[in-house]
Design goal:
Elements (H helix, E strand, L loop, with lengths): L19 H11 L4 H4 L6 H11 L12 E3 L8 H14 L6 H5 L3 E5 L2 H17 L4 H11 E3 L11 E6 L11 H10 L10 H10 L1 E12 L9 H10 L1 E7 L14 E7 L7 E4 L7
Parallel strand pairs: 1-2, 1-4, 2-3, 4-5, 6-8
Antiparallel strand pairs: 5-7, 6-7
Amino acid sequence: MVVRQTAFDLLEECPVTCSERVGAAIESLADSGGKEERGAIFTRQTVVGFILDLAGYTADRPLHMMRLLEPSFGGGDFLLPIIGRLLAAWRAVGAVGSALEALGDAIFAVELHRNTYRTTRAAVVSFLQGEGVATDAAQGLAARWMYQGDFLMAPIKGRFDFVVGNPPYVRQELIPAPLLAAYRRRYETMYDRADLYVPFIERSLNLLAEGGHLGFICADRWMKNRYGGPLRSLVAERFHLKFYVDMVDTPAFHSDVIAYPAITIISREAPGPTRIAYRPAATVP
């Protein structure tokens, strides 16, 4: 029997209440206005499609029977194409049942910044309506799929077949001290001068189902610098780095904000060889 859940149902009861200082720090970041503070980076659609393809999130698969996590959905650069593929996959098998019941468990997407969450939630509802989903069902799906909060602190239930996206690129000095201390206690990869995207990768990997795939675009410095040592060990011991795509000098984003960007596809399976590509051609608007 399939148990239907809302985004809030996916959050377990926290065994220890977060301190007031940590909670206040999270709220401060949730209401921050600057893109630099939030680490907001916008990915071009050709790159999004490439990552989804490499991760195996394609409409010829039964995506409505799988689960996908987007840990920092921002303006919906990944989320809207994901929804488009999910709808196409469901319709390809006859669109059995209501959209709300059939698709409600297929996506779980998180965003910390409150205004961004609201704007993108409205965009998701509008997108679903444009795809022929009734308004009530569109609003219900957005409620089930989307959660406003701190991905690194929310105790999320279950495992996912896919984790994809563009994790926030935030330097340690921009993270309030109480929250940074909480991250360090919780994540072994929050080591030395590691930026925020590093524990995002750790948490995302640990939420993968057996055989599941992570597809991220972010800085590749964790593969080379001292601070990336714990994450490199985690990947080498428990996962398979399947693809590494060097995106330096390739227009992956709508602004030049990340040095040394790369796409990595990592699966929860026995370690094996890595396929490597450098500076792929990209035709972008």
